[in-house]
Amino acid sequence: xxxxxxxxxxxxxxxxxxxxxxxxxxxxxxxxxxxxxxxxxxxxxxxxxxxxxxxxxxxxxxxxxxxxxxxxxxxxxxxxxxxxxxxxxxxxxxxxxxxxxxxxxxxxxxxxxxxxxxxxxxxxxxxxxxxxxxxxx
Length: 137
Description:
This protein is mainly alpha-helical. It has helices at residues 3-14, 22-44, 49-55, 57-90, 95-127.
């Protein structure tokens, strides 16, 4: 049994089934959290999130863990709602499918927006910084 293919087919089937609202609300919450954390990264002078995870081992590991902690509640909600959906639709629960759904609906949107939010905030701050006043002599 090909788990990714089976999961993909099940995910497409979930789009119009019971609890389909989660496909809007969970990514929206993850995006909100990613933007919030990206702005925080920019204020603290932190590097872009996903790039750091992929290129710097030690710092990337810390960033990944911090991101997972930040979006954990949304991922747990995604897992619980997927379990409820699976019980309604299939009368069973597939943990691997639930974990895939949590990653796709929560962690991926969070990961993809946090870095751009950081860069946009830095750009915005540089364009709208108050002018420096020199002493008038």
